[in-house]
Amino acid sequence: MDFDFLKETVLLLLSGVPLLLQLSFFSIAAGALFAVLLALMRLSGNPVLDHAARSYVFVFRGTPLLVQIFLIYYGLGQFPEIRQSFLWPFLREPYWCALLALTLNTAAYSSEIIRGGILSVPFGQIEAARACGMSRGLIFRRIIVPQGLIVALPAYGNEIILMTRSTALASTITLMEVTGIASKLISETFRAVEVFICAGAIYLILNFAISRAIALVERRLSPQFHAPALAAAVPERA
Amino acid sequence: MKLMHLCAAALVASLSLVTGASAQPKDWANIKIATEGAYKPWNFTDASGKLIGFEVDLAEDLCKRMKAKCEIVAQAFDGVIPALNAGKFDAIMAGMNITDKRKEAIAFTTPYGRTPSTFAVLKSNALAKLPDDGKVYSLMPDGLAAAEKSINEIKPLLKGKVIGVQTSTAQANFLEKYFKDVIDIRQYKTTEQHDLDLAAGRVDGVFASISYLKGVVEEPKNKDMTLAGPRYGGGPLGFGVAVGLRKGDPELLAKFDAAVNAAVADGTVKTLSTKWFGFDITPQH
Amino acid sequence: MADYVELMGFGPKGWGLLMAQATLMTIAVSATAFALGSALGALVAWARIEGNRPLRIAADAYVTVLRGIPDLLVIYLLYFGGSQALTALAHLVGAKGFVGVNAFAAGAIAVGIISGAYQSEVFRGAFAAIARGELEAARSVGMSRPLLFRRIIVPQALRFAIPGLGNVWQLALKESALISVVGLTEILRQAQVGAGSTRQPFEFFITAAALYLVLSTISGLGFQRAEALGMRGVRRS
């Protein structure tokens, strides 16, 4: 075990972590917003909106993320109309292309998760809320979101971890996040196994931290399922 | 545990079937040569998927001289050296320059081609007006001073520009060594990817060997591209393109060396290179 | 539109034949990976259910690690470092010489190993769905372990596993696109070659996307049919 090499490698790889975190965070956030829109479109009852959302989800879940990235990065760059439009300063940069592709992709998967969460709320509660005269917005905010969130959280947590892994694909369009730096190091030093171990460790630690954070959020959001330890603290009566 | 052993053995056995790797007979009657297949006109694939190019023709010629039967296979450039050392094939002919770094991992024959490297840019880009257009500078000890003067001259003109280069090449090393602090170096897996981005205007220029770029700018679809700036060779850019071989195969090295020297001496290399590049790439000793 | 048809057609200038061959390659590498993943997944699921503690820890580690690191890294490891690793493994079982890894093998094994992690979860869930009573009854009648496995566990677990396996197959199909970065000429790599050669990346990548959609739709229908077949005779509650 060449510890000097390992140490050097880890330091080099860590310089890619900020980019990785940026890509994950912004794509998940933007993707979540878009996903809510898609879920609402599917639940709206309007056949046109429903169909449009379903087609979007079908296409983005049925094709590999790498194809989507290449399509946006290389494909869109082909058209002079796009190169001369106001979009070009963004689409010219691999960072924005990667962000766009990741966002569109996660939105498709997340919309199904969110839809599942919304549908899980027992219909009786919605009926009762309507009977009380609650407006649709209020029902959504007070009844659906709190309960639907708890149901959706495990699956959504999974999606967050998957997204953090998927940022590695940004390395194929010249972005130097952790995997990009790792692949460059492997081809420079020919020591694939050591570089892999370092890069893999970084991702695992990151994922561990994220899973812990999500588990914490789950516990905080569902106090009714985790009985406090008061029973043990109450002294036995004689 | 016996089950595990059985499974592992079965897996390994099936893999050997898949790859057909085995201990090489020392007479070298059969040689497997790897090339990239995506570096026109050194080596590329035609519409039917067949490997063609200068090195494919040269390989056939060399094998005839060595009285050996050769099989040419394609391999992604950034994995070619580890694969050679692992025994996947016996030789590399992939437009690969001799560099000190590579000499640490593998052995090289005498070179069969030597061309400098330069920038290719869009005619509309400011970089098209780089000075010293076409002048060749050597980074070998005797010409290093002049070369470094030229580099320092063009550095301010390149400041803030985005330059594309193929990853794990001598050209990438050169840019990292001399221009790392002034330009944004984008590393691409293949040359076709950086050409696409040059056409789209994502990079201000690409840096590659003249042998490759000349063919690129001459293609009708690339009429907006032109070569620009000075040309550099030697030093980190390598001492010429040669056949790459494992360090533990001295007999094969001797055979290839003899064949390459013969091909250079009787003008075969000149003929083939004029056919594929339009100019002679034989190294001038 | 006519240009596109000519580009992708089977005429002299068309890339249709090459794309079709690439599609076959995608199916081949995905199927190989999936099969490998099934074998691995079954082994790992068994280790997690019936294994002793060290085995269970190893199996858990395998699943956690492979679901936590990017697939691209696993593919790079196996492609660049695979020769080292596999040669070492080969020496362990007494084989000699070098074991080379070409792009197909590296890709199939990499995707197979990743798929195995997901499939082990599916098999674990499927096993858990079998009624405990049946297993107890079988044991009390004196069935041997292999017979129990063959006649009770496998048929039912497979049936419960089909929806999950359908998902994992779709995953394998999409992951095969990653193998293009190590040069295997499957759909995405062929599209890249075409894009670079003709300067029309949009047409090529749209075609690639369409091909994947077709493959994924057909697979989806196939698995739906398999599920229906599996649920024959089962009374829905």
Report on this structure.
The complex is a heterotrimer of chains A (238), B (285) and C (237). Chain A is built from twelve helices and no strands. Chain A is mainly alpha-helical and 238 residues long. Chain A has a single domain (3-226), classed as MetI-like fold (Orthogonal Bundle). Chain A is flat. Residues 16-24 of chain B have low confidence and may be disordered. Chain B has 285 residues and is α/β, with parallel strands linked by helices. The longest helix of chain B has 18 residues, at 2-19. In chain B, α6 links the parallel β10 and β11 (184-188). In chain B, α2 crosses α9 (250-265). Chain C has one domain: MetI-like fold. The mean pLDDT of chain C is 84. The longest helix of chain C is centred in the first third of the chain and has 35 residues, at 16-50. In chain C, α2 (16-50) packs antiparallel against α3. In chain C, 46% of the residues are buried. By secondary structure, chain C is mainly alpha-helical. Chain C is flat, with a radius of gyration of 21 Å. Chains B and C meet through α1, α3 and α7 of B and α2, α4, α5 and α8 of C.
State the name of the first-level CATH class of chain A.
Answer: Mainly Alpha
CATH class of chain C: Mainly Alpha
Q: What amount of the residues of chain A lies in strands?
A: under 5%
Shape of chain C: flat
Q: What composes the largest sheet of chain C?
A: none
The second-level CATH architecture of chain C is: Orthogonal Bundle
CATH superfamily name of chain A?
A: MetI-like
Query: Quick one: how many beta strands of chain C?
Result: 0
- What is the fourth-level CATH superfamily of chain C? MetI-like
Distance between the termini of chain C: 52 Å
Number-wise, the strands of chain A total 0
Name the chain pair with the biggest interface and residue counts per chain.
A-C, 40 and 40 residues
Domain module count of chain C: 1
Cα(first) to Cα(last) distance of chain A is 63 Å
Q: Element order, helices and strands of chain A?
A: HHHHHHHHHHHH
Count of discrete alpha- or pi-helical segments spanning 4 or more residues of chain C: 9
